[in-house]
Write a structure and sequence with these properties.
By secondary structure, the protein is an alpha+beta fold. The chain has helices at residues 24-79, 104-116, 145-151, 158-167; strands spanning 10-11, 84-89, 125-130, 133-141, 181-190. The protein has one domain (22-190). The protein has a 5-stranded mixed sheet with strand order 1-3-4-5-2. Bound molecules: heme C.
């Protein structure tokens, strides 16, 4: 199959459909902010997940994520100031607060279509929302075997599967395989 490799970042909103003039330096600044905020969130969540997986295994790590992942996300969001907000989204969300809003759904679906067509996803995507308002997306892949404990075939660990279903009765975030697109970090930036 012919594979198309996207090496550079691209601006998601088609230029013709974009009524706002986005200056290259403004986009560069949005990317820098997006990289900083998404890295802070992933460091905070990833570091804690790893720590709890190592110290207490998947059950303890699950308890930690379900009790603290969202509050930790809010804390990073608060720390970025009022012109920047950061969150996680997924088409197949576990926590309904992480459901994509507005155009976020179409962006995730586009990324999924690209991946299904053999595209190696870009590290970052910038969407122009309005004059001086942007959304920076960092696609999140299932990039570690450990993710599959809680997002793959969860019935391999029946005790964990039971806890997940009790805590998240509407859970959609299972059945993933390695390298699947799991969702994205979204950083909204008012420039
Ligand atoms: C120990 C279990 C566990 C592991 C391992 C785990 N997660 Fe999760 N994940 C959760 C829980 C619980 C939530 C819901 C957190 C909440 O309520 O905010 C979640 C939520 C998410 C979300 C937010 C969207 C949603 O569905 O609500 C993303 C994105 C995500 N996980 C990606 C990953 C990735 C990538 C990995 C591997 C690096 C991973 N997870 C490993 C338990 C886990």
């Amino acid at each position: 199959m012919k594979r198309l490799l996207l090496t550079t970042t691209f601006v998601a909103a088609a230029l013709l459909a974009n009524p706002y003039e986005s200056k290259p330096e403004e986009i560069a600044a949005v990317k820098a902010t997006g990289q900083k905020a998404s890295a802070a969130l992933l460091k905070s969540l990833g570091g804690n997940l790893q720590k709890h997986l190592q110290s207490g295994g998947p059950m303890e790590a699950f308890g930690f994520c379900s009790d603290h992942a969202y509050t930790m996300t809010e804390a990073v969001d608060q720390s970025m100031g009022s012109d920047v907000s950061v969150k996680r989204i997924s088409l197949k969300y576990r926590n309904p607060v992480n459901a994509p809003q507005g155009s976020e759904k179409a962006i995730l679906e586009s990324l999924e279509t690209l991946q299904a067509n053999g595209v190696v996803l870009p590290d970052e995507v910038v969407e122009v929302i309005g004059d001086g308002v942007y959304k920076y997306y960092k696609p999140l892949l299932i990039n570690k075997e450990a993710c599959l404990k809680c997002h793959g075939d969860i019935d391999k660990l029946p005790e964990l599967a039971k806890a997940i279903r009790e805590r998240y009765p509407e859970d959609k975030a299972t059945g993933y395989r390695m390298n699947d697109l799991r969702g994205a970090v979204v950083v909204t930036v008012k420039h």
